[in-house]
Amino acid sequence: MTQLPNCPECNSEYTYEDGTLIICPECGHEWAPTEDDETNNEKVYKDANGNILEDGDSITVIKDLKVKGSSLVVKRGTKVKNIRLIDGDHDIDCKIDGIGPMQLKTEFVKKV
Question: What range(s) does the Protein YjdM C-terminal domain occupy (predicted)?
């Protein structure tokens, strides 16, 4: 589900789409979405502490994570360099020394 912009008249967050228009149920204002509204829908990736993550950042794992289908464990405190952010269930694509390529969720990491 995409995040719709707040109403420009009353700043209500309860807007909805009706065809090509966006409508505010509180004040009745109708408007056509602009390109600015669409660019605000970019996903922001945040670590467990709320810091914004970007491609190429270094992170630290904050919880022991079992590797699915293996007896390996990514230990708490493991540092990972040069991450890549992706869309999907797991937000981070990376390569961990001793384990190899894998994907992590942003909720289990913190930015270094």
Answer: 46-112
The count of other CB atoms within 10 Å of the CB of residue 59 is: 24
**For the whole prediction, is pTM greater than 0.70?**
no
Q: Which residues of 30-58 are buried (b: 16+ CB within 10 A; e: fewer)?
A: eeeeeeebeeeeeeebebbeeeebeeebe
Task: Look up the domain containing 85 and give its range.
Answer: 58-111
| Per-residue pLDDT in tens (0 to 9) along the chain, 112 residues | 568 888 888 988 899 988 889 999 999 999 887 755 555 567 889 999 999 999 999 999 999 999 999 999 999 999 999 999 999 899 999 999 999 999 999 999 999 9
Task: Please tell me whether residue 111 adopts helix, strand or coil conformation.
Answer: strand
Question: For the chain, where are the alpha helices, taking DSSP H only?
Answer: 35-39
Q: Note whether 26 and 71 are same-domain residues.
A: no
